[in-house]
Amino acid sequence: MNDTNPEIEEQLSALAEICCETLKGDDTGLAGRSDALLKALLMSGYVRKHGKNITAELEARVKKRCPEPAMHRGGALSGITENLQQKLNKLAQWESELPQERTPPKAANISSTSKA
To answer: How is 57-103 classified by DSSP, letter by letter?
Structure first.
């Protein structure tokens, strides 16, 4: 995407790198690092600016970054990117619902603040 900011570009590139590592057999970064990057991507405004779908964007980046494993493991790549998409959707939903689920403030206990 050519209309993203440097922060979003960095996060998408890091996610693509994690996808490449996972395709090559190292899935240690998939859970921990990807969660933090997805949260940062959400906070950077990616979802508001570009919609919620990162699957196609990540697949295109992975195919450029590591074409050999991406070509031979297309099904695995789709599974990885769909998993990341689902996590992003859950994060976006959680972030949008959080303020509505807060309980209203309660009245103070007057007896605890007075010297009666």
So the answer is: HHHHHHHHH-HHHHHHTHHHHHHHHHHHHHHHHHHHHHHHHHHHHSP
What is d(CA 4, CA 28) in angstroms, rounded to the nearest whole number? 28
**Segment 92-109, tens digit of pLDDT:** 887 665 555 556 666 666
Instruction: Give the residue carrying structure tokens 């590591």.
Output: 66
**Cα 93 from Cα 72, distance rounded (Å):** 34
* pLDDT tens per residue, range 37-60: 999 998 888 877 766 688 999 999
Q: 108: buried, middle or exposed (CB in 10 Å: 19+, 13-18, 0-12)?
A: exposed
- At residue 66, what is the residue type? C
Which comes out higher in pLDDT, residue 12 or 105? 12
User: How far, in Å, CA of 73 to CA of 79, rounded?
Assistant: 10
